[in-house]
Write a structure and sequence with these properties.
By secondary structure, the chain is α+β, with helices and mostly antiparallel strands. The chain has 18 helices and 17 strands. It is globular, with a radius of gyration of 29 Å. The two termini are about 55 Å apart.
């Protein structure tokens, strides 16, 4: 009987955009414990010849990186087909092909994913009007191509760049681990749309992929000429011909509902401008100045690249934790606090200035330290503190409320030290600032011990939280609502009342509190993201990480 395919072979013509990797440098999948559950009653009746599997892999070196995984997958299922049954392609085969087709159409494409052999098979099927017959060699070949492509696609689209490449790009959050064989077995046996529901990617990745589709449609359907004006600013109530063009651009973005073509700056336009400013990380004042026009003039192709760059980063990160955790997004200058996996609250933060970058990594928060000392780090000691001590140690220490201690913690008189013979690298003592209102760490700090000496803390410089771009620190992260964070971390301990926390913050005596449960802290870097209200946001590339990743992904200089 002729086998009729479940999905139209027209889909297969687009399948070539996501075929197997051709380059010999394909990333080897990490070893993982085999947790696949195999149940014979779930299998398709037809089986492959094991010799065919061996010969296919021997003849197709593009799949060498996945040889062992493909062999094990079929061996443990008794070589039963995964993608083709007596009626043709399974539902999940059609879903997988559709997913790859859509990814290719909306920008997730790579020249290394083109397979001439698959192209030839697809062309043959398209011109044939009799379908596949029993014994047709296209049947096992199509089965094997689909399985091999699953590993290649998963490696590229769900795994992304290698861990070493990510570290070269200053990303030190451990990579997620994917058991691809178990995932494949699970997906092909599900009746629902497993390829959308069970993708091993962070939810933010899926949200950005949806926005990528919208941007691709916007690029294809909208004329995106540069908006120019000699007037420096527009506000509510103003009139000018260029305002009609600005309205059209904001309507295209979805910030301004309706189709207002007038040249008057209306109340509705004021709200739309504020929404756009919020999404772009600007000062929200409703004024159309050059920074707003620059953002409106940014080509859609550039925004698409920005989304793709951040989707690549999201391939590296773990799935969303279902526990409590804290996320700091450096380019957003915001901290987000999650209670059992759900966003609870957010606040502004100050991060490291360029050249003193806050590092991208993750550790577990273990301690809350009230009324902390501040041990001056080597860099600040060499550049700022030692020069002051050499000019006049006693007066400098008094002004800064600092003291010098030895390794034992004993305070040392500055008069007993010849500061002129030391630099930051060979200074044998610790300079620390005493607890108090002028302490650089404020009244509380939050420690997640790490090799970068980065932590969250309060600050006496409260005015900086009102700045729009908040990269001012030496690398640590200053928190706008430190008391709120302390209360949140200690909320399950009834002994730590608000009154007790206030007292500890103002005690002038350092006190360590060990958390009963450690809280994961993720320091991330995302310049494109979808916020909790479903709005697409963009931020400036404050450390130049986007530019370096773009060079890796797209070959841009």
């Amino acid at each position: 009987m002729t086998i009729r395919l479940y999905a139209s072979f027209t889909l297969l013509a687009l399948f070539i955009f996501a075929a197997c990797q051709q380059q010999s440098g394909v990333r080897k999948q990490p070893k993982a414990r085999d947790t696949t559950h195999y149940s014979k009653e779930e299998y398709i009746e037809q089986s492959l010849d094991s010799n065919y599997v061996n010969s296919f892999l021997s003849a197709n070196h593009a799949y060498d990186a996945y040889d062992e995984y493909i062999q094990n997958f079929y061996r443990k299922r008794g070589y039963h087909y995964a993608w083709i049954n007596k009626d043709g392609l399974t539902e999940q085969a059609g879903n997988f092909i559709n997913m790859m087709k859509n990814d290719a159409a909306y920008g997730i494409r790579d020249s290394s994913l083109m397979n001439p052999a698959l192209q030839k098979l697809t062309d043959t099927l398209l011109v044939s009007d009799v379908g596949l017959k029993p014994g047709d060699t296209s049947i096992p070949r199509l089965e094997m191509l689909l399985t091999a492509q699953f590993f290649a696609y998963g490696n590229k689209v769900w795994g992304g760049l290698t861990a070493d490449s990510a570290k070269d790009l200053e990303w030190f959050i451990p990579r997620k681990k994917i058991d691809m064989a178990s995932l494949l077995d699970s997906m092909v046996n599900k009746k629902s749309n497993a390829f959308e529901e069970d993708e091993p990617v962070n939810r933010q990745y899926k949200l950005l992929r949806n926005e990528l589709k919208r941007l691709a449609n916007l690029e294809a359907s909208t004329k995106w000429d540069s908006i120019k004006t000699t007037q420096k600013s527009f506000k509510k109530g103003d009139s000018a011909a260029v305002i009609a063009t600005i309205k059209n651009r904001l309507e295209a973005w979805g910030d301004l509902p309706g189709t207002d073509t007038s040249s008057r700056f209306t109340v509705e336009l004021d709200s739309a401008v504020r929404n756009f400013q919020l999404r772009m990380g600007m000062k929200v004042d409703g004024l159309i100045k050059q920074n707003v026009l620059d953002a409106l003039n940014t080509p859609i192709a550039q925004r698409i690249s920005q989304v793709l760059i951040n989707m690549e980063r999201l391939r590296w990160v773990p799935l969303e934790p279902t526990t409590d955790y804290i996320l700091v997004n450096i380019p957003e200058f915001r901290m987000h606090v999650y209670d059992k996996g759900k966003l609870d609250w957010s606040c502004n933060v100050v991060v490291g200035k360029p050249g003193a970058n806050t590092v991208i990594f993750t550790k577990e928060l273990r301690y809350v330290v009230f009324s902390p000392y501040w041990n001056v780090p080597p860099g600040i000691l060499a550049k700022e503190v030692l020069p002051g001590l050499k000019r006049g140690a006693g007066s400098y220490l008094a002004r800064q409320n600092m003291e010098i201690v030895g390794a034992s913690g004993k305070v040392i008189s500055p008069g007993s030290i010849n500061f002129n013979k030391y630099s930051g690298g060979n200074f044998p003592y610790i300079v620390r600032q005493r607890p108090g209102p002028k302490n650089s760490l404020g009244k509380v700090k939050f420690l997640f011990p790490n090799e970068y000496n980065i932590y969250l803390h309060d600050t006496p410089a409260r005015y900086l939280f009102g700045e729009n771009k908040r990269s001012f620190s030496h690398g640590c992260i200053r928190v706008a609502e430190p008391k709120h964070l302390a209360e949140w971390l200690l909320r399950d301990d009834s002994t730590w009342t608000e009154k007790k926390i206030d007292a500890a913050m103002n005690a002038g005596k350092e006190k360590y509190v060990t958390l009963k449960e450690r809280i994961p802290v993720f320091i991330g870097y995302f310049t494109a993201f979808v916020d909790s209200k479903g709005n697409l946001n963009f931020r400036d590339d404050v450390y130049g990480h986007d530019a370096r990743l773009a060079a890796t992904l797209f070959g841009k200089k």
